[in-house]
Write a structure and sequence with these properties.
By secondary structure, the chain is of the alpha+beta class. 29% of the residues lie in helices and 19% in strands. It binds flavin-adenine dinucleotide.
């Protein structure tokens, strides 16, 4: 049967775009190396009609399909896992969707292929005098399709918002092969339901995104980069809130705990510009901000500013060098930040398998990245303790990385039964056989 499927896919997209064996391997393991799975093959279609034909065939034959962009997702959404049916899936790599169109300078929008990377999109729009609002350390590989599917935030979220704030329309293919085009011909198109908003954060479970119309933004002004020494995470969020109140423009606000800061400085063989503070805030602003009440250092050159940033952007790599990492990307209401963080360290470190816990994140959004080192790859006891604590503090278990398979069982901690039933209904309506990324985001009965 598998040979029959492979022959059919080869007819649809050419045998050179059907990968098996060693060629397929890199697509079957994720960035964290914690998650991997088996697949019939990896398919690399190049246009929407090919995606439609593949989905029609997979739907008719009940073959699960895992859409994949740059495979930088961190929640086990982009590579196969176990499916209830036990059927092997295909991985649908969107990397050949690399179309870049002319930027419309009047409505400040551009239509691009889902496989265009964040870096290539930023480079492309810069030729027209604009920037793209979402930027993240995975920019060389993360794609526009993947960032829409996860509603990625990133390092400029405080200034430009998450991906949701950039998307104006999408072209996508439903499980049965139906092509939905809601790209529109202008940026302002309110005809009917906003289909793109259904797909933002849908993590490949409702449709395969093939093209996206995004808003482009004015480039960042020249700015100053600071490290500010603080005693608590809440001091960082209060400082940012004060900047907002005083109408200062904040271009980035990243808080890092001392242990993470120490680790990344050692990892990069860079100095530690601020010592003896439990929290270090990386603040970027083009406004005059009064920091006289704090210990701070200000970058003195563009090169030094990049080195400040390296200590934030390479944190994931520095932590990754310690082994298998359990990553929890959560949001906590500002009033509960310090209490939550203190309880997280105590409760998670009380588990015998845990060796270390680290905290950093996009502080203006109260989005914390919690890193847990020690437990075996398949041991989720630390996540379980963490997410229960998140729920008890009124937070969210998924702030910007999505839910994937990794957090599916924890979604009910922060979403009501009515919410869960409604999204199941939507899933069953658009994808009755549940072929699109089954097991991710929502567990069907
Ligand atoms: C070093 C590093 C730094 C990161 N920093 C950030 C950060 O600051 N902010 C942030 O939000 N995230 C961050 N991430 C996480 C990751 O980069 C994002 O989740 C990103 O959006 C994933 O994009 P991708 O193209 O790699 O998607 P993938 O990893 O390939 O897929 C992610 C999900 O989207 C689905 N998907 C992918 N393409 C499509 C498509 N065309 N149609 C439908 N579904 C699709 C997949 O099925 C999967 O569920 C970081 C990751 C790394 C490794």
């Amino acid at each position: 049967m598998i040979d029959q499927h492979l022959a059919q896919f080869a007819l649809q997209i050419g045998v050179e775009n059907v990968l098996i064996g060693d060629e397929a391997k890199p697509y079957l393991v994720d960035w964290t190396k914690r998650y991997s799975g088996e697949a019939i093959c990896v398919l690399k279609p190049a246009n929407v009609l090919e995606v439609s034909a593949i989905l029609k065939y997979c739907n008719a034959n009940s073959i699960p399909v895992i859409p994949q962009g740059g495979n930088t997702g961190l929640v086990h959404g982009s590579v196969p896992g176990e499916t209830k049916s036990g059927s092997l899936p295909v991985v649908l790599s969107m990397l050949r969707f690399n179309e870049l169109n002319t930027v419309n300078r009047l409505d400040r929008s551009v239509v691009v292929g889902a496989g265009v990377t964040i870096k290539d999109l930023a480079t492309h729009v810069s030729k027209f005098g604009f920037t793209y609002g979402v930027d993240l350390a995975a920019r060389d590989s993360a794609t526009i399709g993947g960032t829409v599917a996860t509603d990625a935030g990133g390092i400029r979220v405080v200034h430009y918002g998450t991906t949701k704030a950039q998307v104006l329309g999408v072209e996508a293919v439903l499980a049965d092969g139906t092509i939905i085009d809601s790209l529109g011909s202008t940026a302002k198109d309110g005809a009917g339901y906003d289909f793109s908003s259904w797909l933002i954060g849908s993590e490949g479970t409702l449709a395969v995104i093939t093209r996206v119309r995004v808003r482009v933004k004015n480039p960042l002004p020249n700015a100053h980069t600071y490290f500010v020494g603080l005693n608590k995470f809440s001091e960082a969020s209060e400082l940012i809130a004060k900047c907002f109140l005083e109408q200062k423009r904040v271009l980035a606000a990243e808080a890092i705990d001392e242990a993470s800061f120490e680790l990344v400085c050692k990892f990069l063989d860079l100095s530690k510009p601020i010592s003896d503070y439990p929290v270090i805030l990386l603040l970027e602003t083009d406004s005059e901000v009064d920091l006289s009440a704090f210990t701070f250092v200000k970058s003195q050159s563009a090169k030094e500013s990049l080195e400040f940033w390296a200590r934030r952007e390479r944190l994931g790599d520095a932590v990754g060098s310690l082994g298998i990492i359990h990553k929890a990307d959560v949001g906590i209401p500002p009033e509960n930040l310090d209490e939550f963080i203190a309880e997280f360290h105590i409760e998670v470190n009380a588990l015998s398998a845990v060796k270390q816990t680290l905290v950093y994140g996009h502080i203006a959004e109260c989005n914390l990245h919690l890193e847990i080192i020690g437990p075996a790859a398949n041991d989720v006891s630390a996540e379980s303790v963490t997410y229960k604590l998140v729920a008890a503090h009124g937070g969210t278990v998924a702030s910007e990385h999505g839910v994937g398979r990794a957090k599916c069982e924890f979604l009910s901690l922060v979403r009501s039964d009515d919410y869960l039933q409604t999204i199941k209904l939507l899933k069953k309506t658009l994808d009755p056989k549940s072929i699109l990324n089954p097991g991710a985001v929502i567990a069907l009965d």
